[in-house]
TrEMBL record:
One of its GO terms (molecular function) is signaling receptor binding. It is found in: Membrane. Keywords: Disulfide bond, Glycoprotein, Immunoglobulin domain, Membrane, Signal, Transmembrane, Transmembrane helix. One of its GO terms (cellular component) is external side of plasma membrane. PROSITE patterns: IG_LIKE. The lineage of its organism: Eukaryota, Metazoa, Chordata, Craniata, Vertebrata. Pfam families: V-set. This is CD276 antigen. The gene is LOC108263437. It comes from the Eukaryota. Residues 34-151 form the Ig-like domain.
Length: 292
């Protein structure tokens, strides 16, 4: 009998401990569910030169149906130098603390703040905007922060084509500007990669945030048919420009006909000058004899 009572007591004790454990777990889960948190939808973004970009940031829980932003303090900063990109507290933008590099270029979605939207828009993106950004939000429910990386790129302009012909062959050259440094290839008529007789230079300009690219292919003979290819992987830009050049008639014209024409014009001009001088001399003689 004593053993039965002891067994029942142990069962009740185990049940109590189990219930207590479940209650603790539920309390912990509820506390985590209600914990204040800040998050970014994308930890890495890409912005194109001259365009706008939205640095996404959200916090929860939000202010609900009856928002009171008096406790909200929101700050966007650059991680590298701690410069203030945009800040909001006392229920208004605090542009006095903003870095001059972002003046008149940023805006919050103020009507969305009560819903937990702490995103900031940056206009006219330039190369100096690239870097890491920190979104810090505080309310009466807590404080948290999240970080993201912004990459900068510039679409390459339409490549400018020039073709120069001389006695050794034809020089085909393309020039363009963009960012970052691209992948440049030349392909032959049958799609094969051309590696010989190619020169490509890339010069970076930190002030403009652009790379000046000049790539050329020297064809030892003409006619020729090839393709210039440029890839900007960051902005998913792909340029492909085919080039066809027969060169036969033009080369003959440049190397033979042009010198002949120039020589002929020179002779005609010289003959006209000599004729003019002879006519003027004869006219002077006639005047002299008439006076005599």
């Amino acid at each position: 009998m004593h053993a039965v009572r002891h067994h029942r007591g142990k069962i009740r004790k185990d049940a109590l401990l189990h219930s207590t454990f479940l209650i603790i777990i539920i309390i912990i889960l509820c506390s985590y569910a209600d914990a204040f948190s800040v998050m970014v939808p994308a930890r890495r973004l890409t912005a194109a030169r001259g365009h706008s970009v939205v640095l996404g940031c959200n916090f929860s829980p939000d202010f609900g149906a009856n928002p009171n932003l008096s406790s909200l303090v929101l700050t966007w900063q650059r991680q590298e130098d701690s410069h203030v990109v945009h800040s909001f507290y006392y229920e208004r933008d605090q542009l006095e603390t903003q870095s001059s590099a972002y003046r008149n270029r940023t805006a919050l979605f103020v009507t969305e703040l009560s819903k937990g939207n702490a995103s900031v828009r940056i206009e006219k993106v330039g190369i100096n905007d690239a870097g890491r950004y920190l979104c810090t939000v505080s309310t009466n429910l807590g404080t948290d922060k999240a970080e993201l990386q912004l990459d900068y790129g510039a679409f390459y302009t339409e490549p400018r084509l020039t073709i120069s012909v001389n006695s050794s062959g034809a020089l085909v050259q393309y020039e363009t500007e963009g960012y970052p440094a691209p992948v440049v290839m030349w392909k032959g008529e049958d799609g094969e990669n051309l590696t010989d007789h190619i020169q490509t230079s890339v010069q970076s300009n930190e002030e403009t945030g652009l790379c000046y690219v000049k790539s050329s292919y020297t064809a030892p003979n003409t006619p020729l048919s090839l393709t210039f290819i440029l890839e900007n992987h960051l902005l998913h830009q792909y340029l492909q420009r085919p080039v066809s050049y027969t060169g036969g008639q033009n080369s003959c014209f440049n190397q033979v006909i042009v010198p002949v024409v120039v020589s002929f014009l020179f002779l005609v001009t010289a003959a006209m000058l000599i004729g003019y001088m002879i006519a003027r001399r004869d006219k002077l003689k006639d005047c002299f004899f008439k006076k005599g």
